[in-house]
Amino acid sequence: MKTRHKRITFIVVGLAALGIAAGLVLNAFQNNLVFFFSPTQVAAKEAPINRNFRIGGLVEQGSMKREGDGLTIRFSVTDTSHTVPVVYKGILPDLFKEGRGCVAEGKVGTDGIFYANTVLAKHDENYMPPEAGKAIDAAKAARTVKE
């Protein structure tokens, strides 16, 4: 084999290996990508069904109910325009309360209930996740336009 053929073979194999590595990285990134949706978007069926995403907003007053097993909690997340029921099985963060902001990660079932596997609560009196704050502001603006 000539030196020229060796170089061409080396370049082709190198480009193929680089392409495979890039494909694997992009595939892993796509599988771990988690989008954020507001309750209004979930109610409008813009969120994927049976695929993980995050929903954020305020925990609706009077919506939190514990089931008999002590771990399953039902509550509703609202952006003041629409409300989505959430079911979470696990221990909630200490700062999780009604009327405060939260972000839950999980899936929407075919029944329209959001089944969370992770719940995050706001940690400071002045803090709200940026996406949740934008969703609440957009819902308030949409509600004032309707009135």
Could you outline the blueprint of secondary structure elements for this entry?
Layout: H1 3-32, E1 35-37, H2 39-43, E2 53-59, E3 65-66, E4 72-78, E5 83-89, E6 101-108, E7 114-121, H3 130-146
Parallel strand pairs: 1-2, 5-7
Antiparallel strand pairs: 2-4, 2-6, 3-4, 4-5, 6-7
Give an overview of the whole structure.
- The chain has three helices and seven strands; from the N terminus they run αβαββββββα.
- With 147 residues, the protein is an alpha+beta fold.
- It has two domains: 1-33; 35-146, Beta Barrel (OB fold (Dihydrolipoamide Acetyltransferase, E2P)).
- Strands 2-4-5-7-6 form a five-stranded mixed beta barrel.
- It is elongated.
- The termini are far apart.
- The mean pLDDT is 84.
| Assigned CATH architecture of the largest domain | Beta Barrel
The biggest beta sheet reads: 5 strands, mixed, barrel
- Whole-number radius of gyration? 22 Å
Helix/strand-derived class?
alpha+beta
Quaternary structure state of the chains depicted: single chain
CATH superfamily of the largest domain: Nucleic acid-binding proteins
Order of helices and strands: HEHEEEEEEH
The level-1 CATH class of the largest domain: Mainly Beta
> Ranges with pLDDT <50 over ≥5 residues?
none
The strand count comes to: 7
| First-last Cα distance | 80 Å
CATH topology of the largest domain: OB fold (Dihydrolipoamide Acetyltransferase, E2P)
Could you tell me the mean pLDDT? 84
| Strand adjacency order, main sheet | 2-4-5-7-6
**Whole-number total of structural domains:** 2
- What sort of overall outline do the alpha carbons produce when their principal axes are compared? elongated
Number of helices: 3
Helix content: 25-40%
Strand content: 25-35%
